[in-house]
Amino acid sequence: MFHLTKKLEYSLLAFSYMAQLLPESRWVTAKEISDHYQIPYEVVARCLQHLARAGVLHSWIGAQGGYRLKAGWEKKSLLELYEILEGPMNLVRCLDHDGDCSHVARCTLPVLMRPLNQKLKKFFQDLVLRDVLNLKEVINESKVTTPS
Amino acid sequence: MFHLTKKLEYSLLAFSYMAQLLPESRWVTAKEISDHYQIPYEVVARCLQHLARAGVLHSWIGAQGGYRLKAGWEKKSLLELYEILEGPMNLVRCLDHDGDCSHVARCTLPVLMRPLNQKLKKFFQDLVLRDVLNLKEVINESKVTTPS
DNA sequence: AAAAATTCCGACAAATTTTGTCGGGATTTG
DNA sequence: CAAATCCCGACAAAATTTGTCGGAATTTTT
């Protein structure tokens, strides 16, 4: 129940990898990351795609293309990453459908869990990549948009 | 990844149920709880057994037996319940074996996750049943130890 | 213009974890 | 002694997560 999913693990590793190169900043391929950490290519690749679609990374298709951190990435919270990769964060399913438990009328879980869920989300909202990855400060992300 | 397990859900319902009866306090059977919430008997039953073994509930075997809240139950945290029911709370597996990832040397996850994990545990340690279940105060738990 | 490198996408297969079921034993009450 | 109950482990089923495959689209290189 409280294990990070591989999607999150791999995404964090990807961020970590890209952050390390930082003052440089270049296009990094999914393959490079998968090789470096020996994690399955297709899985990281999909994570990176989702993160790009969600606007946390730049992506560039084609030879010499890849991914690159997007300005402001270091302020993204674990909550945001979670919701990009896994959908809404809810302690109990019924909260997905706004407390419509439809299960037993007596089920008090949605009522009890709603405030708790808010707290949990707050907790992860306050954990931003900069802190999670232990970065002193993010030096500069060059505004390059084409590979070569 | 952040859905409560049924074990936890059912246990919370059980606590909720027993707390509602409170100034009374009597032996409540697993069957009674399973019937009330329409949840599978064997599963709640096992949760209650674990909670009893862990000292959060009293149990009494035999006809007219059952379970009963044990003094101090309302100060038990969700972390404690979690660890009773599910084992140690760790965001990543390698923390189970104290960061021995054995995976790739480069894997920075254990290092990054250890402090995060601490924070998460703290978070759940601070959530105690009294608050989670919204109890004003716990009136009294009679010290009865035998059913009749 | 063709080939190579890459992101993008969905369908599906495999592995793992969670959830539920069963059968039986032990203890207490009436 | 019978009934009610807790106790326990093994296993089956369901759900979820993880990984694989096949292919399409875009860009760069030759």
Descriptive terms for the model:
homodimer, 148 residues, mainly alpha, two-stranded antiparallel sheet, 2 strands, 45% helix, elongated, DNA-binding
pLDDT < 50 runs, ≥5 residues of chain A: none
Please report the two chains with the greatest interface, counting residues with C-beta closer than 8 angstroms to the partner's C-beta: A-B, 36 and 36 residues
Strand content of chain A: 5-15%
Coarse shape of chain A: elongated
Q: Residue share in helices of chain A?
A: 40-55%
| Largest sheet composition of chain A | 2 strands, antiparallel
Mean pLDDT of chain A: 90
Order the strands across the largest sheet of chain A as they lie in space. 1-2
How many individual β-strands of chain A? 2
Given the helix and strand composition of chain A, which structural class is it? mainly alpha
Radius of gyration of chain A: 18 Å
List the quaternary state of the chains. Answer: homodimer
Order of helices and strands of chain A: HHHEEHHH
Number of helices of chain A: 6
Distance linking N and C termini of chain A:
44 Å
Brief summary:
Chain A is mainly α and 148 residues long. Chain A is built from 6 helices and 2 strands, in the order αααββααα. Chain A binds a DNA duplex (30 and 30 nucleotides) through residues 1, 5-7, 29-31, 40, 42-43, 45-46, 48-49, 52-53, 59-67, 146-148.
